[in-house]
Amino acid sequence: MPNCLKPDSCRMAFWGHIAPFALWVGVILLLQALEIFAVCPRWLYPWSYAFKTFACAALFLWLKPWKTYAPLSLRHLPLALCVGILVAVIWIIPETPAFGKAFPRFQEFYHRWLIMMPGTLPDYYNISFYPALPPGHIARAYMPHEAGWALTLIKLVGSACVIAVIEEFFFRGFFYRWLRHSRFWEKPLAVFDLQSFITVTVVFALEHDRWFAGLIAGVAYGWLAIRKDNIWAAAAAHFSTNLILGIYVIISGQYGFW
What we know:
The protein is mainly α. It is 66% helix and 0% strand.
């Protein structure tokens, strides 16, 4: 893995790993603040997602954090895609209607205890409507008949191509190595540190409402990045997971995933 040699390059590497993800989270926190004061109209959700998709992608491309990494090797791609597909299947299966019919008690347990907040059922899991969302649920704002196909597809592209990549650069590229050394760009990915791995995986899991599925995903992506010493392998896996999940959401109508 190349190291940045000039101070300016090191600063770009630092901010390139952090700034796009920070902006993405900042938009989410802003919406949550507006919700508290009841001044967050429904149309703002898909439009804010479109804004952060383009803004974070532009910031990532400008800062070029990938310059401190080797490019993705094609020999890593099959394994990365297989890992991503497996994570998507694990993410989706427990919430499918077929699974609920076969294992209704486990599906309720899954929603009550393995999704935030443990001990309560998420607001989209209303047995009178599930798997459809209850009328007026905020996630319905991303449905094509309400947001329009352009914003729905931007949501899909942003999920697969933008947040999947910037999350990997933040969690596996920055956070995992920063826990080992402040000059993280000088530390290779291909060194397994148990404490750092657990910390990053847990934080990554808690970032997602489906924390248990997020925990499995964090282990899978982290293992892949370290095993292949390549951030792009983890990003490719994350991309395939989010792409499959997004396509499933649009086809099945289970916008509770979004």
